[in-house]
Design a protein that fits this description.
With about 725 residues, the chain is mainly β. It has four helices and 45 strands.
Amino acid sequence: MRKVKGILILAVLALLIPWAGAAQDGILIKGQGPREFRRPIKVDGSGRLTGGIHVIDACEATAGWTALGNDTTGLDTDLDHVLGAKSLEFDKIDGTANTVFGGIQKTISSVDLSFLVENSGAFGYSLNVSATTDIAYCFLRLGTDGSNYNEWRIDDANMSAGWNSLRFNADVPSSAGATGDGWDATVVVYLALGCAFDLETSTLADLRVDHVTANVGLQVAADINASSSSGSSATKVNLVKVSGNAVDVDAGNTSPGTLRVINTTDDPNLSKLTAWDDGNDRARANTERDFELDPLDATAGWIVGNDATANIALSSNHVQGTGSLTFDKVDGGGWTEAYIQKTISSVDLLEFRAHSLIEWSVYVSDLSEVAYAFVRLGTNNVNYSEWRVLDADLTIGLWNTAVVPAGTVEYTVVGTGLVDSAVTYIAVGVSFDAENDTLASIGEDAVLVHESHHTTATISAEVTSSVNSANINLQKVGNKPTTTGSGNVGTQGTLRVAIGTDDVNMAAINVSAAIMDDWDGTEGSGVSTDGPQIMVEARTTQKGALGNAESVRPVANDHGETITAGYTWATDSNRMEEIDPLDQKHAKGTLFDVTDGTDAGGTTCPAGTDFCYFVDMDGYTNGLFQLALSCDAGTVTASVECTGMDTGGAPATYTYHAVTNDVFGVASLVATAGAASDLWVDNAGKLNNCKYVMVRIDANTTANSGDWRCDHKRSAL
């Protein structure tokens, strides 16, 4: 009787929609579930459903709105807006709150937004900023109060100066932004929005926000089947014309050959139609039937699946409902899997088909040792079917919404598998690479089954503002996980493409490929002109210098002979450089040359009032001193001393000892009222062990008439 009633309702609906569209009347659709609204929906003049947006707040008045903290000020309305008549405006300043946030908050009337998560919905609002330089991300918060909410974020890289249309997928909140118990999607009374900045001292004036909305998504699975007389055949449907016009393909504007698709009300796969209207002729339509197998909001009934699973707990970090369940993978019992399981009341899924979708949420903090996440449905723990999501399709540190077609049970069927008329067993978990792998706080949230609308359809996305990014994530090719990154082409999961022969770039590609194909000469074979050519610049004069780190071509003479550094252009010859030349192994010079030196002496000696002169012997093995002394009266005496001290100080700070007799065989050289000279040579290399050699001059002429000179040479040979 219920089935007949449903068919009758759909038939009536099919008759009424065209009439209702012409008159813009509402059609009352009665939902059967607790979350379905008994509200009128609107149709346009062609019988098509309109709307799908719920306004959470219009942002046209400051009433009820307050600043998030002292870093936000200047809350007011502004005539610069997107929808309605006004927008809200505020400033981010360097306030005493010392936070990086500039934003506003409000307590709103309770609203149930749970249908958004279940139907791939989204939240959005318009944001106007004069610059994004100091912005880290902008956010939307929904929850119970300022201490319990979920947060959605958009990074600054996806925004620009001016008005931005921000869109947040309802089922992908920020794990880092969840606060307290998170949100209860069925009772939302708290709203906050704004931006987080790079520094708490960052400032920005006149941030404007407009119309916070909830947008209902449409989750559709579609395929096209072709009949064949026997065996298996490929799809043979070939769309050639639309209403007598050649079918419109490729990019560009629509034309008479563009096919328009809507869902007909008498489609036998249209399970039910639910909608609500916010009073502005905007409606939400859902061509699915959703069934929640378990919300995972409580630990009751859930048990560990094996010895490698421990510590089942309730967590406030969740996606749907009021909580989620967490557990740990431990090293126990030789299991690579960690999972929890539950016996549930019998559920009849007989009407769900292979194109229906199984959905659950999983959270992992590390994927380095994870193989895959899984869900099991069946009769008990020895009779079930398993669906998997591989680690390559998971992301660490956030909730992953796993959605798999029911018909992809390609991994595990245990015992009798899933008996869809009586499902009494459910399990969720994660499989690891090895049994001794461990991971704490694995999160799991609500498990649902969606009966998708099965139709032939074209699904398009309309971009209404500047902030939109592609949300198509290619997961499989030919029903196999995609191969990514560098390396060889995979045997599965690699998409094969062909370059169109009329591509304007193809001619150049073909020429280059033909040239490279001729690069097959071998050493010792005849020289040809089709091999790889190394070209240099022929010159008869030297090339001008270029800047440091700039590109430069190598050069050759006009005969093709390579020019290298050291080449002399004027003589057409290469220069030779002597490494470690002989003249670098000697040091020479005049050590001192004094005329009429004073008898009083100087201050250059370590002790006494004589004159002292120093020679550094580091690196040298021997030395020569040629002395010439003279005076009119009295004496001038020369002697040599040595030190081995080397502590980094000045030569005069060390202690010296007389070595004249030891090295040269004389005590000293003395000029008495006349001249004296001598040549002292260290043939034995005794001075090699000295750090400094000191020549001491003692003048006692009574009339400052002494002269003394020394020329020296030291050698490293």
